[in-house]
């Protein structure tokens, strides 16, 4: 299956970005997992003419970055509609309560994961968010069963009456 959807990871520290990309690697068969060292590089990527063919499904974003904060970046993505429907995760140890509340209220932050994280926690959170993305975007869930939450996807199929025991 050729990936049609992106996981965009934004982290200015190269070692941390490498760890995030490595931890999310099990999702790479179904999602293109891309790393960026700044919010500006993500903006450039999203506005490039070639980016239209593949849509963002998930942002995994650090908070303290050069030029902007992760919270402000996520709010910008929401405000300007640069990634409609994409899920948003803040991966940081630096965002305070007020920043986090702003991210939730204005940037539709859906998950906050504190550094240091475990691979299982990051991958589990990403799978949960991507499962919701597949359901909300009304994508065919069958190709994603082996990597996302198969139980939730099956339940969605049953509820939509696309899968029955008859």
**Second CATH tier, the architecture:** 3-Layer(aba) Sandwich
Beta-strand fraction estimate: 15-25%
End-to-end C-alpha gap: 29 Å
Main structural class:
alpha/beta
Number of alpha- plus pi-helical segments: 6
Question: Strands, helices and their partners?
Answer:
Elements: E1 5-10, H1 14-23, E2 32-36, H2 39-47, E3 55-61, H3 70-79, E4 87-92, H4 97-107, E5 111-114, H5 119-136, H6 150-159
Parallel strand pairs: 1-2, 1-3, 3-4, 4-5
Helix pairs in contact: 3-4
Considering the chains and any ligands shown, give keywords for the structure:
alpha/beta; five-stranded parallel sheet; Rossmann fold; 166 residues
Note down, in words, how this protein is organized.
- The structure is a single chain.
- By secondary structure, the chain is of the alpha/beta class.
- The protein has a single domain, classed as Rossmann fold, CATH 3.40.50.2300.
- The chain is 41% helix and 17% strand.
- The chain has helices spanning 14-23, 39-47, 70-79, 97-107, 119-136, 150-159, and strands at residues 5-10, 32-36, 55-61, 87-92, 111-114.
- A five-stranded parallel β-sheet has the order 2-1-3-4-5, sandwiched between helices.
- Helix 1 (14-23) links the parallel strand 1 (5-10) and strand 2.
- Helix 3 (70-79) packs parallel to helix 4.
- It is globular and about 45 Å long.
- The protein starts with a strand and ends in a 7-residue tail after the last helix.
Briefly characterize the structure.
By secondary structure, this protein is α/β, with parallel strands linked by helices.
